[in-house]
Every structure is written in structure tokens, then in C-alpha cells.
Backbone:
């Protein structure tokens, strides 16, 4: 495309009296309507537009419709200094535009007159042909193909539920159904839009990222809208990096970023020149803020203890009392509180001389500080938060544009330290490099050039980012625990029950009804527990309790938009998804617990944890904005004003606090170096996070590190799976062992979310019920329960499965979720080429409904005649009948097939999450970092020790080895969650990422492996190498390499022998004989290792190639010196030709490709 051309779209705002396809009750009712004209002008002249506005302003539903309805024809504008456009050159076969009745149509030129005054052309639209078309009056040069398209709009959402509900809502507003102009695309549930006049597609961020891999320039869309960008989740930041590059290459593409907060400075800095629009934010009616230290809560018995816990937690975490009654982090050499406040007031006042800063201050003070515009009336923390909010934390100084320079020595030294901790080779090289240098200075004091020289020798790209673009603020951990979270939930319950009678006093003829209560809770466990308490309370008849969470069905999720039954108040219990992703119009009261779940990751200890943390100020403002849409509202904040002022304005981006191994793998799949690519993020991650991820990928043979890193066959398979690389490798291993279904189930339940319920009043009963499934593994207990649940569901039906779940303290919805995850994993493994279609047959839980055959008259004993008597403890033991019937549903022998082998696969999934208990009577375990941890009190293993149970301790060896899913810090004590007792053989064969064989086998630098004999030690070393090589061969075999397929067949036979040995059974003689006789296949000179037409029909070869991404196809073609440009269909056809019949350009290219595969 001509780089001098600027593609400009003329948007014409549809007048209300014209064709506005929306419902009458929608037109002009939402604040977003006020920027419709500005949006059109902004999109006409700008490639990137940032739209900010409060929750409920209509951004998510109305803006995509405005763009769809106001779309008009492209105009091509050329700058004054651009060279003149070339004249029309008429030739047979070219595309031109022909005027017919004042409309221009694209046509193909079939003939050109000798004098070139007329042409004979065929219309693309309809296929009609027309002769003698006058060139001078009716023919013009055709516009580019992209300029002739209708609007194709894609809108990303961070959550599945938001993508689906928004698509349904927008379709409803347009008197349509999902599948016409409006569609949605999420994993496992896609209804694509289909309309000739334009489409809007709502999808998750992950869905669009997968499409970027296949279509790097996103050619199918001309407007991309990224919604909820303020949440700064990992995939959204990753997509932002890509979109900044795509926008620069496509003059016709428009990128719209939508944020529900006024915090747009980060995006303005990241995308220079973007246009900013602000939707009038704030509630349409006043919303009263009521905090825990206000009189409303004075009479609650829980208030005093919660306020004391708050204060104690702030003091324990480093806060000290400062001027103005505000707690701040202590800072050495700080000025007095009054001096500091005076400086901050002067600083803010100086900024307010700028009109734009005045508007920002006004918006901030209205939404956060209660509306007082005088800086002197606010605390230092509030003023500093504002300065951070506008990106001027460093005293408002104008930052000059940074020039590229050498990274600081401290950053490079940190990178080398991280590399050394993950690689024995680099550690040795670094030791030698330091010994050769004169002087005793620390590496942080070296010249950057010296450290860069070392990295260059190792083939590692230096990390060029010193810090994030804004100061990272970590979230504050909540002080709650298993014991006092009931106190917290009791206060939530009491608050709801106190406001409901007031809401019911609304007059009967009120057009908005009694309204709804929206309660923000940290997670599903709290939602479930509070719902049970409310539904069992004395006021239950006045409540319509709804749960807003992915664990409930879609029908129940949609109920939140419906009015409550007469005489009831709708009470919605949700998580932070309700902050911005979903708008509920009739909310009058918001109950804000002030908490949410947040993932954190420590790369040095390889420790991921899901913590309950305090929300930031921006989250609190968002939650407040859910009320006051139809009448005045109230927000009850179950935390004090001091607590609100002590938390940061915004949370750290997810990219700076999570494991980046999957992100780095996807980056390499795009042909990029993660160290360079992720440094271009709006707020780049720390060097330790990136180096830990690269070390992990190198250790599992997914990549070969260097400049740039190279994708290896194992990595190519892993990047096609929606799993963390270690879990994906475990899935491949399960396929090699021939148990893909059980492996998928194991990985589904090992996510850290237990299906077992723990009601506070029945904790001991629930724990014993869990132990009945497995007394030595939380994960295996969940796996056995899942297998039993699926059997009952398929044999007896949904009603029986629900009754069984309730009786045995099992979460029915979570079990259904596990089954769906298991099925989706099997489909993903099939697409990667590791499995056939038969391996997932009957696994789709959506197909189970209605499948259960009659048993003795139905899926559950008929109760229609007995009026529910079967469920009542009446005379004659009828109550026992149900208990006995439910007990019959349980399997006497719950051990699943190949269970001991699955424990090995669990070790492979969490190879670094291994701990050892030296003495069976002790409670503490040594973890890889050297820290001591205990088993989580909720675990089935929490009481395994000799002092309590001699019989149990007799089966617990000393030392004992354990695998856990996560470590969590609780009350200054590390807790291991989801623990499983494993054998020494499991650890020796499947544990650890790094193995050193001399002088004896050592895993990850701390686990020594010593067998009873030299033969045992040698066997372990050889079996670990066999497992490593098998993963590589099976990855290559997905490309139909004959040698790899033969090697994979041998590996599978070996694994069958190993599987029998691990479960103490005798291997099959045919497998042993196969291994004795096996030889690497010999190929005649010039023969292709890849299967050709005589073994696989061309249609099947092309079908498999279609499963590969465009990037993977181009890699194959580039390796064979073939042309790599063109659409995917062309790449597939060309690739099939090369693989089956040899390269287009060189006969040696295929041989080189074969050698590379064999070497890998």
C-alpha cells in the first residue's frame, strides 16, 4: 500500500428521525449518546481513539452501534507533497470501477478497445457483463479492496460472560438475534455474525489473540475496540503491543480503547497522537457513601472487631500515623507532614493553571475526593494519588523524550543473576568471567559495556527497561482467615437485611420498582456461603437472591437483568466482574466488601498464589458507580475511610505479577524475542519474571534460547494448547502413556479450585466426606469425585447428580465446569495432532442432558405422588431410603484406573512444586526455596502425623515427598495447597526441571536422587532421558515424519512397560518383545521421511495442514526455500506440494528440512 496515502473514513451521524435501528427506550437515554458526533469526527481523522467514562454510561453497548450505523464510504486523501497519482492503465484482467445510475461498481476488464476509449467489463456484483463502456465518463481507477468493505467491528472483553451478555443485549436493542449483525466468539461457544451490511463481533481477548497469530494484520476487521483496558490484564497488555504495530501498518484500521475510569494517561503516553474522548461520567443521581466507621454501622456487633483488625493490619504492614489522620508508609528523611502537604498543595496548584489539568482535577475531586476543589483541604496521600493519576508523580516535571541508551548496570546485573540461578552453564561462565576481571567491585558497579559483553557471549538479549512507566504499587493483603471470614460475611448479611425493609417501602406505582442490591464479594466461596445464609434467614421471603459468577448457568446469569417478583428485593451477589463488565440498571444499593482475588507470582521461589487483597481506590469508585442510575442510591463500604485512603489509586498490571512462560512462548510463536517484545508493553514486567519464564521454556525443550530464541517442536505443540507450558507438557505425556482422558481430568481438577464444599456449621462432616474419596491427596480426591459424578450424571441424569452433589458436600456447578474443561482440553489436544477424534467421543457434558435412560421408572425415584415424602424423616424410615439410595450411587472402590501413573503425570505438571517432610511426626516441609511450609488446614493431609494416628503414620515414610499446586502466605506462615503424597520414584522420574548427573543425580540443585544400587541410579537417568526424548519425537511426529512416528511407537511401548511397573504389574510380553526387536527405520537415499500420497491422501494432508497457524506454515515453507507469501489457503496448498512432491525451487531444501527434524 502506498505509504503516502491516508485512509480517511467519513462518518455521518444518523439523525434520530432517520434509520436508527435501536429500540425507542434506548435512543438518547445513555450518556454515551453525547459523544456520538465527536466519535465520528475522531475516527475520521485519527487511527487511535481513547474513550473514558464511568460505568453504566453505555460505552460497551452504544459505541459499537454508532460506528456500525454511522459508517460511510472511505475517502482517499493525499498530502500536498505526495507524488501525483499514476494515470489509469487499462489492461485485460484488472479491476476498475464503473458508474451505473450514479453508483460506482467494481468490475473486471474483459476487453479494451484499440483506441482505448471503451471497455467490455464484468460486474463483480451479480456477474453481469456490459460492452462499450465509455472510459472517459464512466470508468475510474478502483479503490483498494479494503476501501470497498462494509464495517467489520470486533469488540474484546476480558471475560466470557461479558462477551456473551453484551452480544445478547446489543442484538436485543436492535430488534435482532445473535447471529445476524451481532455475534460472539468465545472458546466452546461461538455464534459468528453474518450480515452483508456490517457486523459487530464480541469476543474474549484470548480469541482475538489467536486470530492475530493466524492473521497478523487482522485483515477481516476494520475497527478493533478493546473494552475494559483499565483492568490491565495480561492478555490485554499483550494485545496492545501487537495492535500498536498493526495500526502503524494499516492506514484503514481504527483502534478504539475504552476505559471505565479517567485513568487514560498511560494509554495516551503509550499511543502518542491518539484522540481522547470523555463520556460524561458519574452517576445520574447522587450516591451517598457510607463507611464502616460511620454511624450506620455503630450498632452492628461485628463493626468494632473489624475496625480493630483493619488498624492492626495497617500498623503491621508498615503504615505509621501521619498528619491529617492518614496512614502512610514510613519514608526515611521525610519532611514533616505540614511541610510535605504544603509542597504538594503548591505542586497541584501549579498544575491547575493548565485548563486540561483543571478538568482532570475537577473530575478526580468529584469522583474520589467528595467534590471539594480546594487542594489545601485534602490529605497529602490524596494529593499524591492525583499526581500519580495524571502521570506526574515526580513533581509535575515535564519528562523529555527518552533517547535509547545502554541499560543501567543494576538492571543487567539483575538479569545475569536471574540467568545464573536457572542455568548451571551460565552460572559457571559467569564465575569464570568474574574471576578474570580485576577488582572486587560488585557487578552493579561495573560499566554496562562489561555486562553487555558477557550477555553477548551467552547469546542473550539484554533487558533494556529500568522500571515500569509508572511506579508499581502492590496490593495490600487482607488480614482475614478461615476463622474470621464468617465475621466479615455476617456483617455483609446484616447490612443487606437492614436496608431491604427500607427499599420495600417504595410506592407501588413507582415506575422503577423497589430496585436491587448489588453486593461485591471476593469469590465464589463467599457468594455461595452468603447466598445460603440469606436464603435461610427469617427475611428470606422478601429476598430474590441471585449469584453472578461463571459457576452458575447462563440462564441464572441473565436473571440479574430481570425485575424482582412482586414484594421481593433482588439481591445480586457477584465479584469484581460487576464493576464494569455488566451494567444492571435498577441497582439502588451497593454493598462493597472492599476485597477481590488477585494472582501474584514470585519468580525466584517459583511461587504462584491467589490472594484475597484490598481493592484499590479506582475499584471502589467503579463499584460506587453501579448505583444511582435511576434514582438516588447508597454505597455501603465495609471498610473505614482510613482504609480507603491507605490503598493505591490503581493496581499493578497483571503482566508485572504473574508467570510469563505461556506469554513468552506465544511471543516466540509470533517470531519475536520476548525480551524485546515485552519491553514494549505499556508497563513492562520485571526482568526476573521474563528470565524465569525463558529458563522454564528452555528446560522443557520448548525453545532454544538465543538472539532470537528459536521455537522447537515441543514448543510448537505447546503453543497450540490453552495451558501453561508445564501443564501442556503433562498433557502430552498423558497422551504418550495412553491415558489422555484421565490426564485431561487430572489437569482440570488440579487448578486449585476444590469441588468440595466446607459449610461453616458442617466443616468436620465435609472434611470427612472428602477424606472418604482419598485420604492422601486433595487432587486425587477431586479426580475420583469427578469420575463418580460423570458416571452418575450419564447413567442417572442431572437431577440425581444434583442430589448426590448436595448430599456429599460437592459443588455441582464446579463439577460441570471441570467436565467442560476436560472436554475442551481433549479437543485442543486433537487439534494439535496428538489424538484422534474417537478420544473425545461422549466427553461433551452438553450432550449428557437427556441421555440418561429410565431406571425403575425414571432418572430419580418418582416423588409426584408422595408430595415430597421421600425427602422427609417420617415414620417407617422413608428418610433413610434417600440416604441409602444416594449411598448406592457411590462406588465401593473409588480408585480410578492408572492412578499411580497419574501421580507421576501430576509431578510432571508441577515439577518444581515439590516439598519434603523429614520426619513423619513433624508438620513442616522444606520447599525448593528452602522456606518451611505446612499443609493447608483444609487439606485431607492436614492431620497426617504419627502423634495422632499410629496406623496412618505407619504408611507415611520418613522422609515423605509431596507435590502441591500453590504456596500461600497466611498469618506469616507458608501453606501448601492441593497436596499429594508421592513416592520417591515419582519424584526421581518426573520431578524437577534441571538435572545434574555428576557426581550423582541432583534435581533443581536440592533434591538428591540415590538408588539402592548403581543399576538403579543408571536406570533413573536413562528413563528421564527417554521421557525427554519421547516428548520431542511425538512433537515432530505431528508433522507426519516417518522416523519420528517410528520413534514415537517405540516410546509408547516403553511407556506401557513403565506404566505397568509403576502400578506393580507385569508388563505385556508383546511390548517387551517389540522393544527388543525395534530398530530405527532405514530410508532409501532420496526418500522423503514425510508420508507422501501413497500413505495419506492429499485431502487428509491438507486437512492437517489447515490445523496449523499461518506462522507455522510459513516456517515450514521458509525451511524448504518456498514462497511464503499469500493467503492461508495458498500456503496450505504450497506446503502440501513441497511436503509430498519436493520443493518448488530446490530439490535439496526438503533434505535439509528432513535433517533438521531428525536432529531435533
Residues:
Amino acid at each position: 500500500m502506498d505509504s503516502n496515502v491516508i485512509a480517511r473514513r467519513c462518518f455521518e451521524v444518523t439523525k434520530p428521525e432517520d434509520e436508527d435501528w435501536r429500540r425507542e427506550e434506548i435512543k438518547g437515554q445513555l450518556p454515551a449518546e453525547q459523544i456520538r458526533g465527536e466519535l465520528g469526527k475522531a475516527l475520521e481523522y485519527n487511527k487511535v481513539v481513547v474513550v473514558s467514562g464511568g460505568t453504566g454510561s453505555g460505552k460497551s453497548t452504544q459505541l459499537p452501534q454508532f460506528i456500525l450505523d454511522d459508517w460511510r464510504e472511505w475517502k482517499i486523501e493525499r498530502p500536498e507533497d505526495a507524488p501525483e497519482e499514476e494515470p489509469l492503465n487499462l489492461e485485460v484482467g484488472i479491476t476498475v470501477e464503473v458508474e451505473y445510475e450514479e453508483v460506482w461498481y467494481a468490475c473486471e476488464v474483459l476487453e479494451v478497445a484499440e483506441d482505448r476509449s471503451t471497455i467490455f467489463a464484468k460486474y463483480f456484483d451479480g456477474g453481469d457483463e456490459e460492452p462499450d463502456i465509455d472510459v472517459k465518463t464512466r470508468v475510474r481507477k478502483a479503490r483498494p479492496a479494503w476501501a470497498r468493505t462494509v464495517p467489520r467491528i470486533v469488540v474484546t472483553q476480558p471475560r466470557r460472560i461479558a462477551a456473551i451478555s453484551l452480544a445478547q443485549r446489543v442484538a436485543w436493542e436492535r430488534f435482532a438475534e445473535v447471529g445476524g449483525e451481532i455475534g460472539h466468539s468465545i472458546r466452546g461457544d461461538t455464534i459468528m455474525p453474518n450480515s452483508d451490511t456490517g457486523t459487530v463481533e464480541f469476543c474474549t481477548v484470548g480469541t482475538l489473540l489467536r486470530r492475530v497469530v493466524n492473521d497478523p494484520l487482522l485483515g477481516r476487521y476494520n475497527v478493533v475496540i478493546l473494552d475494559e483496558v483499565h483492568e490491565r490484564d495480561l492478555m490485554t497488555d499483550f494485545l496492545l503491543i501487537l495492535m500498536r504495530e498493526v495500526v502503524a501498518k494499516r492506514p484503514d484500521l481504527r483502534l478504539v480503547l475504552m476505559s471505565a475510569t479517567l485513568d487514560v494517561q498511560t494509554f495516551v503516553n503509550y499511543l502518542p497522537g491518539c484522540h481522547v474522548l470523555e463520556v460524561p461520567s458519574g452517576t445520574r443521581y447522587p450516591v451517598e457513601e457510607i463507611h464502616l466507621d460511620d454511624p450506620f454501622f455503630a450498632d452492628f456487633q461485628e463493626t468494632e472487631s473489624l475496625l480493630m483488625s483493619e488498624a492492626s493490619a495497617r500498623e503491621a504492614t508498615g503504615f505509621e500515623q501521619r498528619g491529617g489522620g492518614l496512614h502512610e508508609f514510613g519514608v526515611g528523611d521525610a519532611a514533616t507532614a505540614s511541610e510535605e502537604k504544603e509542597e504538594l498543595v503548591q505542586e497541584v496548584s501549579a498544575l491547575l493553571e493548565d485548563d486540561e489539568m483543571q478538568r482532570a482535577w475537577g473530575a478526580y475531586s468529584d469522583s474520589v475526593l467528595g467534590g471539594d476543589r480546594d487542594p489545601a483541604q485534602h490529605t497529602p496521600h490524596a494529593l499524591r494519588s492525583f499526581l500519580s493519576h495524571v502521570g506526574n508523580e515526580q513533581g509535575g516535571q515535564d519528562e523529555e523524550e527518552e533517547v535509547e541508551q545502554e541499560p543501567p548496570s543494576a538492571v543487567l546485573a539483575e538479569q545475569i543473576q536471574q540467568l545464573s540461578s536457572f542455568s548451571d552453564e551460565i552460572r559457571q561462565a559467569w564465575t569464570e568471567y568474574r574471576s578474570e576481571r580485576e577488582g572486587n567491585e560488585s557487578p552493579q558497579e561495573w560499566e554496562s559495556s562489561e555486562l553487555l559483553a558477557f550477555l553477548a557471549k551467552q547469546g542473550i538479549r539484554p533487558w533494556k527497561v529500568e522500571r515500569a512507566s509508572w511506579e508499581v504499587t502492590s496490593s495490600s493483603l487482607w488480614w482475614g482467615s478461615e476463622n474470621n471470614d464468617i465475621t466479615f460475611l455476617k456483617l455483609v448479611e446484616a447490612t443487606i437485611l437492614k436496608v431491604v425493609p427500607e427499599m420495600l417501602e417504595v410506592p407501588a406505582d413507582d415506575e422503577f420498582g423497589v430496585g436491587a442490591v448489588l453486593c461485591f464479594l471476593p469469590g465464589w466461596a463467599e457468594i455461595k456461603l452468603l447466598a445460603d445464609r440469606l436464603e435461610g434467614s427469617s427475611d428470606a421471603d422478601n429476598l430474590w437472591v441471585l449469584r453472578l459468577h461463571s459457576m452458575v448457568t447462563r440462564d441464572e446469569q441473565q436473571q440479574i437483568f430481570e425485575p424482582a417478583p412482586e414484594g421481593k428485593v433482588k439481591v445480586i451477589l457477584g465479584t469484581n466482574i460487576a464493576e464494569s463488565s455488566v451494567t444492571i440498571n435498577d441497582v439502588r444499593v451497593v454493598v462493597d466488601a472492599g476485597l477481590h482475588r488477585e494472582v501474584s507470582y514470585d519468580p525466584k521461589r517459583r511461587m504462584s498464589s491467589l490472594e484475597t487483597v484490598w481493592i484499590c481506590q479506582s475499584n471502589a469508585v467503579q463499584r460506587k458507580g453501579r448505583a444511582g442510575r435511576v434514582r438516588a442510591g447508597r454505597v455501603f463500604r465495609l471498610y473505614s475511610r482510613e482504609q480507603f485512603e491507605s490503598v493505591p489509586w490503581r493496581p499493578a498490571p497483571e503482566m508485572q505479577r504473574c508467570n510469563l512462560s505461556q506469554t513468552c512462548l506465544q511471543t516466540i510463536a509470533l517470531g519475536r524475542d520476548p525480551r524485546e517484545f515485552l519491553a514494549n508493553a505499556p508497563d513492562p514486567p520485571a526482568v526476573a519474571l521474563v528470565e524465569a519464564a525463558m529458563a522454564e521454556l528452555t528446560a522443557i525443550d520448548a525453545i532454544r534460547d538465543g538472539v532470537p530464541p528459536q521455537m522447537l517442536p515441543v514448543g510448537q505443540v505447546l503453543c497450540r494448547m490453552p495451558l501453561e507450558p508445564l501443564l501442556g507438557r503433562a498433557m502430552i505425556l498423558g497422551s504418550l502413556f495412553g491415558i489422555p482422558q484421565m490426564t485431561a481430568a487430572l489437569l482440570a481438577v488440579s487448578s486449585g479450585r476444590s469441588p468440595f464444599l466446607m459449610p461453616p456449621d458442617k466443616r468436620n462432616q465435609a472434611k470427612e466426606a472428602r477424606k472418604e474419596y482419598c485420604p492422601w491427596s486433595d487432587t486425587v480426591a477431586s479426580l475420583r469425585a469427578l469420575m463418580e459424578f460423570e458416571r452418575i450424571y450419564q447413567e442417572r441424569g442431572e437431577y440425581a447428580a444434583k442430589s448426590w452433589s448436595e448430599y456429599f458436600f460437592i459443588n455441582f456447578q464446579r463439577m460441570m465446569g471441570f467436565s467442560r474443561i476436560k472436554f475442551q482440553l481433549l479437543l485442543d489436544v486433537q487439534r494439535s495432532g496428538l489424538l484422534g477424534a474417537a478420544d473425545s467421543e461422549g466427553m461433551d457434558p452438553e450432550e449428557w442432558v437427556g441421555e440418561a435412560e429410565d431406571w425403575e421408572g425414571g432418572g430419580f425415584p418418582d416423588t409426584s405422588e408422595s408430595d415430597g415424602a421421600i425427602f422427609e424423616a417420617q415414620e417407617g424410615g422413608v428418610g433413610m431410603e434417600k440416604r441409602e439410595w444416594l449411598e448406592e450411587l457411590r462406588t465401593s472402590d473409588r480408585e480410578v484406573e492408572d492412578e499411580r501413573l497419574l501421580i507421576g503425570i501430576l509431578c510432571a505438571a508441577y515439577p518444581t512444586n515439590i516439598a519434603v517432610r523429614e520426619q513423619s511426626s513433624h508438620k513442616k516441609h522444606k520447599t525448593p526455596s528452602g522456606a518451611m511450609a505446612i499443609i493447608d488446614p483444609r487439606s485431607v493431609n492436614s492431620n497426617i502425623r504419627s502423634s495422632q494416628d499410629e496406623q496412618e503414620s505407619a504408611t507415611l515414610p520418613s522422609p515423605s515427598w509431596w507435590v502441591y499446586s500453590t504456596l500461600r502466605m497466611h498469618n506469616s506462615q507458608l501453606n501448601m495447597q492441593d497436596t499429594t503424597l508421592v513416592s520417591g520414584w515419582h519424584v526421581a522420574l518426573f520431578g524437577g526441571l534441571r538435572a545434574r548427573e555428576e557426581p550423582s543425580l541432583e534435581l533443581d540443585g536440592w533434591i538428591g536422587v540415590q538408588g539402592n544400587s548403581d543399576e538403579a541410579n543408571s536406570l533413573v537417568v536413562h528413563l528421564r532421558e527417554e521421557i525427554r526424548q519421547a516428548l520431542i519425537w511425538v512433537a515432530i511426529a505431528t508433522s507426519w515424519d516417518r522416523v519420528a512416528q517410528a520413534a514415537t511407537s517405540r516410546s509408547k511401548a516403553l511407556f506401557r512397560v513403565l506404566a505397568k511397573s509403576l502400578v506393580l504389574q507385569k508388563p505385556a510380553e508383546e511390548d517387551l518383545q517389540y522393544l527388543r526387536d525395534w530398530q530405527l527405520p532405514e530410508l532409501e537415499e532420496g526418500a522423503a521421511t514425510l508420508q507422501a500420497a501413497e500413505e495419506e491422501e492429499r485431502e487428509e494432508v491438507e486437512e492437517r495442514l489447515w490445523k496449523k497457524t499461518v506462522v507455522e506454515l510459513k516456517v515450514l515453507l521458509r525451511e524448504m526455500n518456498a514462497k511464503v507469501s499469500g493467503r492461508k489457503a495458498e500456503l496450505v496448498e504450497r506446503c502440501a506440494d513441497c511436503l509430498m512432491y519436493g520443493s518448488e525451487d530446490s530439490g535439496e531444501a526438503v533434505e535439509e528440512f528432513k535433517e533438521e527434524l531428525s536432529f531435533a
